[in-house]
Amino acid sequence: MDAWANLSHFLEYKDLDGALSGKEMQLLDAIKGQVEGAELLIDILHQEHDKRINNNKRRIYSVEDVNDVVTEYIPADLLHKITRGDMSLLLKYLQMTDHATPYKLRKFMAEVSTGDDIRAGLTAWVRD
């Protein structure tokens, strides 16, 4: 909606050649409708993604889903400081050890993320 608001403000208040024409107003209204529709679809898509992730019995098949669950256990103030690497090896390991469900991964993350260094917890868990 920001793009539409910026464009609308620019056209309405920064005009150099008079008021907006009827056609310009129609186009702005059409763009606004498209933006609102897209925002609604993005919200629905996000809700569906959350439902899929939160379905604890379903197997995790994507690296993105592993990343989403792991990210839940990283403190918010550290998220921007941590470079997250490729999660494909972790996903393969979880699949091989039958831990590739959100429930099992969350349980695992709760066990290994008790200290400041999650990597140390992950390493210890994998070794065991």
Topology:
Elements lengths: L1 H12 L8 H33 L8 H10 L3 H4 L8 H9 L5 H11 L5 H10 L1
Helix pairs in contact: 1-2, 3-6, 6-7
**Overall number of domains:** 2
Count of separate DSSP helical elements: 7
The dominant shape is elongated
Radius of gyration, in Å, reads 23 Å
Structural class: mainly alpha
What's the count of strands? 0
Let me know the average pLDDT: 79
Order of helices and strands: HHHHHHH
Distance between the termini: 50 Å
Give a short account of the largest sheet. none
Which ranges are low-confidence, i.e. pLDDT below 50, for 5 or more consecutive residues? none
Structure description:
The chain has 128 residues and is an all-alpha fold. It has 2 domains: 2-52; 57-127, no CATH class. Helices cover 70% and strands 0% of the residues. It is built from 7 helices and no strands. It has helices at residues 2-13, 22-54, 63-72, 76-79, 88-96, 102-112, 118-127. Helix 1 runs antiparallel to helix 2, helix 3 packs across helix 6 (102-112) and helix 6 crosses helix 7 (118-127). The radius of gyration is 23 Å and the shape is elongated. It starts with a helix and ends with a helix.
What would you say about this model in short?
With 128 residues, this protein is mostly helical.
What structural keywords apply?
128 residues; mainly alpha; 2 domains; 7 helices; 0% strand; elongated
